[in-house]
Predict the structure.
Amino acid sequence: MSETIDTKKEAKKNSLLQAALDLFLEKGVSKTSISEIAERANVAKGTFYLYFKDKDALLEQLLYQLSYDIIRQAYDYTEQHRAEQFCENVITFADWIITYFTEHRDILRLVRRNFSWPSLELTLTSPDTSDPLWKAIATRLHNASLRDVHNPQELFNIIYIIVELCGTVCYTSIIEQRPDTIDNMKPLLYTIIRRILQ
């Protein structure tokens, strides 16, 4: 019985998140009201507050979910195209993210420069994490050839910097077209990543 209640609660929360995503992409965050989100999700406005304190809390959860999904897909793709060198796998990972944002500019506009893993970092670095994605990433980092040069925290920090760099370059180059197009920035970005990982 409680499983059914939990399933229904999760479905309502997901419905609110999806409704918010659709509306944010259509109208923008500032022009979307909580009433509109609840109406689009087919729930009462009061139901919204059972799951989120306010629109900012919903947006934070939505950005976390989007970032998590993008990183998961990039990791899965990298696993399917694994190379021997760790550095080349990081490039594959970064390239997938850049390709995704090039094809989904609307998502990139919503995420803006918030694509990173500040909120995801807590999950990854928590010793009791049960999330399979973060366990897999942590294992890959632990087994990387760079572990002889860097301790686990340093290695995590390096990957963190690379993800942050990719997110910022994507936003400025794809959305703002500065300092150059993403096609012109990618070779330089990959050169920098290779140097960081040497």
Notes: The radius of gyration is 19 Å. The longest helix spans residues 2-27.
